[in-house]
Amino acid sequence: MAEIKTKKHDGDVMAFLNAIPEERKRNDAIAITQMMQEATGYEPKMWGTSIIGFDEYHYKYDSGHEADMCLIGFSPRKQNLTLYITQNFDKYESLFNKLGKYKTSKACIYINKLDDVDTSVLKKLITEAYKDAKKTYKK
């Protein structure tokens, strides 16, 4: 079985954030870190090389593959800010309708910059999605 690359480690979150070369993206990433920390009550942790995660859960697939992962998190990627907060987009349709400019994939929300979205709606989305994930993935 392949080695899991996205593991929690003691990397310095602020050093990682401060190393983001583009000032706007760096400031946006710091703001999202604060939003997620407020929503979860957890300190940010580095997961792998580029994910900032909060809280954690253990998963196991029928195939036998299992690992730990952050319950919610994000990555300040070169192309966008990638948020890992929900896979249940339908449940939050009313919030997404008010969010602003974003894209989604199966399990990610992509935002180019925080100016493209209503940050009060984003905070609510993060908070609600975290509460639901916490219920779903009880330890």
Structure description:
The chain is α+β, with helices and mostly antiparallel strands and 139 residues long. Strands 1-2-3-4-5-7-6 form a seven-stranded antiparallel sheet. It has one domain: Alpha-Beta Complex (Aspartate Aminotransferase, domain 1), CATH 3.90.1150. It contains four helices and seven strands, in the order βααββββαββα.
Oligomer: single chain
Stretches with pLDDT under 50, minimum 5 residues: none
User: What does the average pLDDT come to?
Assistant: 92
Radius of gyration: 15 Å
Note the overall shape.
Answer: globular
The portion of residues assigned to helices is: 25-40%
What is the strand arrangement across the widest sheet?
1-2-3-4-5-7-6
CATH class: Alpha Beta
Number of helices: 4
Within the CATH hierarchy, at the fold level, what is the topology? Aspartate Aminotransferase, domain 1
End-to-end separation: 25 Å
The domain tally reads 1
H and E string? EHHEEEEHEEH
Number of E-state strands: 7
Residues in β-strands, percent: 25-35%
Which CATH architecture would you pick? Answer: Alpha-Beta Complex
